[in-house]
Every structure is written in C-alpha cells, then in structure tokens.
Specification:
Layout lengths: L1 H16 L8 H21 L4 H7 L4 H29 L1 H21 L3 H30 L3 H6 L1 H22 L4 H4 L1 H15 L13 H21 L9 H23 L7 H4 L4 H21 L1 H9 L3 H5 L1 H23 L2 H19 L8 H28 L6 H29 L3 H24 L10
C-alpha cells in the first residue's frame, strides 16, 4: 500500500521539479500563468451563483451554505503569506505546480461532497491551493520578464476581471442546465491541462535562502479574524445586545489575539510580516489602502451589489448577478489601457483617478434611477463606471506595493492579497450584521454605499498622495 501511494507522489514531485526541455516564449509562459489565475478568479464568483442550489440539494441552512464562501476567504488569508514566503524559498515553479494540483483535487472533492460540512472542509483545502497560485505566479512572471514585469503584472488585473465577467454567467448556465456540482467539476479538466502546461512550458526557478515559516504569527492572525468576525456576525442578531457574553467573549478574544499578534511581530526574529517591510517607505500606506479597498470597493460595493439589486429593485437573481459582469468587463478593458500607460502615469495619478471614478459609480448605484430608465440599466451603468475605476487603479495598486521590495515579489503579492481579504471579510460581516438589524435593509444598504463614497473620496484619495511615486520601467 505504501508503495502504491509513494509512486504517484514521487511522480508529482519529479514533475514539479523538471523544467521544460526547450526555451519558452514570454507569451506562452504568461498564457499558462494567466489560465491558472483565470481559473482561481472565476471560482470567487461562480460559487455564489450556486448557493441556492446547494442550499436545496444538501438540505443545509443558508448560514452554513454561506460559510462555503467565508471559509474560502479565511483559507486564502492563511495560505497567501505562506505561499509567498515559500515561493521565494523553494522556487516559484514548485509552489505553482503544487497549488494547481491541490486546487484541482479539492475541486473534485467539493463536487462529490454529500454534506455541507464536508463541502466546507474541501473548500478550505481548495483555498490553500488557490492561495498558492497568485504569489508564485507573480514570482514566475517577475523572474522571466525582468524589466518588463510591471506591464506583465499589470495585466494580472485584466485576467482577474475576465474571471469576474465569466463567473456569474457561466455559473448560472452550469447550475441551470447541469447541477451546482459542476461549478467545481469544471476546474478538474482545466487543472489537469494546466499541470501539463507547467511541466512543458514553465522553467524552474532559483531557490532562495530557506527560513522557518511563522506558524505562530499566522495562527494569531487567523484567531483574530475568526473571533472578531464571529462576534460581528452574532451582534447582527436583533435579539443580541452588546452586553451579551456570546458577543463579548469572541470580541474580547479577537482583540487579545490582535494584541498578541502585534507583540509577536515586534519581538519575533522572523515574523511572516518582516519588520524590514513594515519599516519600508510606503509599505504601511499601501496595505492600509489594500485593506480599505478590499472592504469598501470589493466587499460592500461589489460582493453585496447583487443583494442590493434584489432587495431594493426586486431584480431576479440572474440579472442581479450580471451586474458583476458589467463591472468586470469595464475593469478588464480599462485595466489593459492603464497597464500600457503605467510607466508614464506613475502610481499616484491612477490611484487618485481610479478611486474617484469608483466613488462616482457607487454614488450612481446609491440613488434611484431617473424617470424612464429601468433599475437594471441604471445599476449596470453605475457598476460599469465603478469597474472602469477599478481598471484604472488596479495596475498601479499592484505595482506600487511591489516597488517596496522588488526582490520579494511573491511574498509581497501574498501579503497584499491577504490584507485585501481581511478587508473583505470584516466589511461583509459588518455590513450583513447592520442589514440584519435594519427595519429596511434596502435603504440601509443604499446608505452604506454612500459611506463607501465618502471613504473613497475623503480617506483613500488623500492616502494615495502618500504612496511612493515611480515612473518608467523598474
């Protein structure tokens, strides 16, 4: 039995280490990496379309079904910084190969799950595979493209936006004509194709100096997020007060975890957020921007947009979901243009302009449509403008944080994504808790959109002026 298990494992390991036998063009290499990022991006939106079907098929409560998305975000938070660190130490190709293999196997397991609890476990495993993709992919591209990596990394946003365009539509078709299980099964043949592509076309990468992984720091960060998210969720119950132990205990625990994490980061010899990065000019500013953007721009203004459309204007689920398609298409188009202009524009101008455009689109969604314009057309128009803003600021946002430590591309990418996911989890938890206690959730959500507008214009735009500027190639 041990030989049976060992042989496939050894085969995977040798395949991950073996490089291509011939020189590979940049376009082919980027194509392989882009397919993996596209697959991961589609998965962030396609699963949302399957929630009602999963609710019925697995006979699970909607709260537990929602955890299939929450646990994926939490898993990504844990996986991203680990993957970034390990990619720089063991080699980006190995981690990229392992991430695709794990994501593919977990997708198959998710599709076969016969209970919501098994599905949640497999979704967590899938998140670890997905979390390994972006940091290692960024490292592979940066290593291969050299001085042109700013443009290559800038196009990552267009790939992710393309996934957001396809996800809601493709998910609706799969659920409608097949079953919810196919939103996971569809990853399996694509993942197998990718594993072959990595073996054939992705060159091996140099290994960096190995150091220990800061497991204690990651567990403290995870405890902080889990405990505080649970406390926020609990207070959303109309019968719960701020004095109830069921709210106080997890909230106090979350604060304690945060304090312990801060102390650990300062005193530990090698924390997963290195002190040299915390002291680096612009690192703190960029990750405050990333966390706020994850919470405001993606969490409240995008993730909850279909819910807003359904509650306020009573749109059907498919129409509400395609609002994300309008946003994603605009982001993909403008992202490609912003990437080509990045060396002339620098970082600050696209950030300031992009946040302002997102604020305009969000404001349009918050107000009622003018007479003669249908709610769907009006919301799609606002979502499209917001997406254009996302496309303008995206390439600058990704490259500005990497400018802090150009030699640690994978690690920096993992941390950037981690801060964004932290913002998403907390914003969605807070927003849904507020909506659950509201007597008129539709109007309340419109007010939350106005809060997003204010934060974009009066917090994030001023912060953008403090981002370290850079023009020209790296």
């Amino acid at each position: 039995m041990s030989d049976t298990v060992a042989k496939p494992t050894e085969a995977l390991a040798s395949a991950a280490e073996a490089g291509p036998a011939r020189a590979v063009s940049g376009r082919v290499l980027f194509g392989v990496v882009a397919i993996a990022l596209f697959m991961s991006s589609v998965d962030t939106t396609i699963v949302a379309t399957a929630l009602p079907a999963m609710h019925r098929s697995l006979h699970a409560s909607i709260n537990w079904v929602g955890w299939s998305i929450t646990i994926y975000s939490l898993g990504m938070i844990v996986a991203l910084p680990i993957a970034g660190r390990v990619s720089d130490q063991l080699g980006r190709r190995k981690v990229f190969f392992g991430g695709v293999a794990l994501f593919t196997a977990a997708s198959l397991a998710c599709g076969l799950a016969n209970s919501i609890y098994l599905l949640i476990v497999f979704r967590a495993i899938q998140a670890f595979g997905g979390g390994a993709l972006q940091p290692s992919a960024a490292g592979i591209v940066a290593e291969h493209f050299g001085k042109d990596r700013d443009r290559a990394l800038g196009f990552f946003g267009s790939v992710a936006s393309g996934g957001q365009v396809v996800g809601p539509v493709f998910g609706g078709l799969l659920v409608g004509y097949l079953s919810w299980r196919w939103v996971f099964f569809v990853n399996v043949p694509l993942g197998i194709l990718l594993l072959w592509g990595i073996v054939q076309f992705v060159p091996t990468s140099e290994q960096g100096k190995r150091s220990r992984t800061d497991v204690r720091g990651l567990m403290l960060m995870t405890g902080f997020i889990l405990a505080l998210s649970f406390g926020i969720t609990i207070i959303g119950n109309a019968k719960t007060t701020f004095a109830d132990p069921v709210f106080l205990v997890p909230t106090i625990a979350g604060i304690a975890f945060l304090c312990a994490f801060a102390r650990h980061t300062v005193t530990d010899a090698d924390p997963f957020i290195p002190m040299r990065l915390l002291r680096a000019r612009g690192f703190a500013i960029m990750n405050v921007i990333n966390a706020l953007w994850g919470g405001l721009g993606f969490g409240i203004a995008a993730t909850l947009a279909p819910l807003y459309a359904e509650q306020r204007y009573h749109l059907v689920a498919l129409d509400a979901g395609t609002l994300l398609t309008a946003r994603g298409f605009a982001a993909m188009t403008m992202g490609a243009l912003a990437t080509m202009a990045l060396r002339r524009s620098g970082y600050r101008l696209p950030l300031i302009t992009g946040f302002s455009i997102v604020a305009l689109g969000t404001a349009l969604m918050a107000i009622a449509p003018p007479s003669g314009i249908s709610p769907y057309t009006w919301l799609a128009f606002g979502a499209g403008i917001s997406g254009a803003g996302v496309g303008v600021m995206g390439p600058a946002s990704r490259n500005a944080v990497l400018q802090v430590a150009p030699d640690d591309v994978a690690a920096i990418t993992g941390l950037r994504q981690m801060f964004s996911y932290v913002g998403i989890i907390f914003s969605v938890s807070i927003a849904t808790a507020i909506l659950n206690r509201s007597g008129n959730p539709a109007v309340t959500q419109a007010h939350l959109l106005w809060v997003v507008v204010g934060a974009l214009l009066f917090v994030m735009v001023p912060l953008s002026f403090r981002v370290p500027e850079h023009k020209g190639s790296w």
